TrEMBL record:
Species of provenance: Dethiosulfatibacter aminovorans DSM 17477
Pfam name, any one: ArsP_1
Identification of the protein by name: Permease
Record family assignment: Belongs to the UPF0718 family.
Gene Ontology CC, one term: plasma membrane
Statement: the UniProt record of this protein carries the keyword Transmembrane: yes
Keyword flag Glycoprotein: no
Length: 322
């Protein structure tokens, strides 16, 4: 899709900057400019598209849709809605309160909370740009599976007593539904695209810059030895390292792309990205306002185990999707 851009940046680096792509600095400069432009284009397109879809799903409507389903189908719907309603971590607390107050089971709520930060339009766009559509689609599918499975397990464990008591007593406001026109939705998509791109571009550039350094200078043999698909502990280590980090997935994807080019296993890179996104420290702090440490611990352990399993699966089928 972006062969034209690759050739254009290659000419820029070689003819204007006078650098050869065979050298470390030339390779790094090409990686930086090529990935920056490619990611910004796809990022803007995907954010606009998903923002338009998102205009149909307010938090109140999301809760209403989920309530219509029963059993496992409710977990599946919650995870699928997590894709088109990718609320940021700062929305976790009011959404959690609204879901619990609305009578939605705890496990279903966690299906939404697990999938929503992992699968969003920004991550999908950068994954597509960096790894191709097959990896991007599989990543989304695994994010949904992780959300559904995690929610079902939490539901079976009967952890409702570890929700702060005041949450069950709260009554959320029920705003009147607002019907938007086509122009309203287009306007919302435009403003949302500008807002999100304006907010995340620094993370994207930082991640691409680190990825460029890795791409041009990191010792390939050492990375393959310790983080390649042949190391059975690589996925587990990447997940454990990522859990306590405060990082943005948009910044980690370009790093993962560079590592993959150096021989790091696809599953190792995917596990690191998922753990960084789904188990960020700020989200844990916010969730502590409404749930007790025991439930947070169960959430972290269950999600981490699921991410490790997904990482090993990605390593096993990497030759089919990359």
């Amino acid at each position: 899709m972006f062969d034209w851009l690759y050739i254009l940046i290659k000419r820029l680096v070689e003819d204007v900057f006078g650098l050869s792509l065979e050298t470390g600095i030339g390779d790094s400069v090409h990686f930086f400019f090529y990935d920056t432009i490619k990611i910004i284009i796809l990022l803007s397109f995907m954010i606009f598209t998903i923002s338009y879809i998102r205009s149909f799903f307010s938090p109140e409507k999301t809760k209403e849709y989920i309530s219509r389903f029963n059993g496992i189908s409710k977990n599946i719907m919650a995870s699928l809605l997590g894709i088109v309603t990718p609320f940021c971590s700062c929305s976790s607390v009011p959404l959690f309160i609204g879901f619990v107050e609305g009578g939605i089971p705890l496990g279903v709520t966690f299906s939404f909370l697990i999938t929503s930060p992992i699968v969003n339009e920004a991550a999908f766009a950068i994954l597509w740009a960096s790894f191709g559509w097959k990896v991007a689609v599989l990543y989304v599918a695994m994010g949904v599976v992780l959300g559904v499975a995690g929610g079902i397990i939490i539901d079976k464990m009967k952890l409702e007593k570890y929700v702060e008591e005041y949450v069950y007593e709260m009554q959320m406001n029920k705003p009147d539904a607002e019907e938007l026109t086509f122009n309203d939705r287009i306007s919302f998509a435009k403003s949302n695209t500008l807002e999100i791109v304006g907010r995340v571009w620094k993370y994207v550039l930082a991640g691409i810059a680190i990825g460029a350094l890795i791409h041009g200078w990191a010792p390939e043999a050492a990375l393959v030895k310790y983080a390649g698909p042949g190391n059975p502990l690589a996925v587990f280590a990447a997940t454990v390292i990522a859990v306590p980090l405060y990082s943005n997935a948009l910044g980690t994807i370009p790093i993962a792309e560079a590592l993959l080019m150096k021989g790091v296993g696809l599953g190792t890179a995917m596990a690191f990205m998922m753990a960084t996104t789904a188990l960020s420290f700020p989200e844990m702090v916010l969730l502590r306002k409404v749930i007790k440490p025991r439930l947070i611990a169960n959430f972290v352990v269950i999600t981490s185990i699921g991410i490790v399993i997904i990482g090993y699966m990605f390593n096993g089928i990497a030759h089919l999707v990359v």
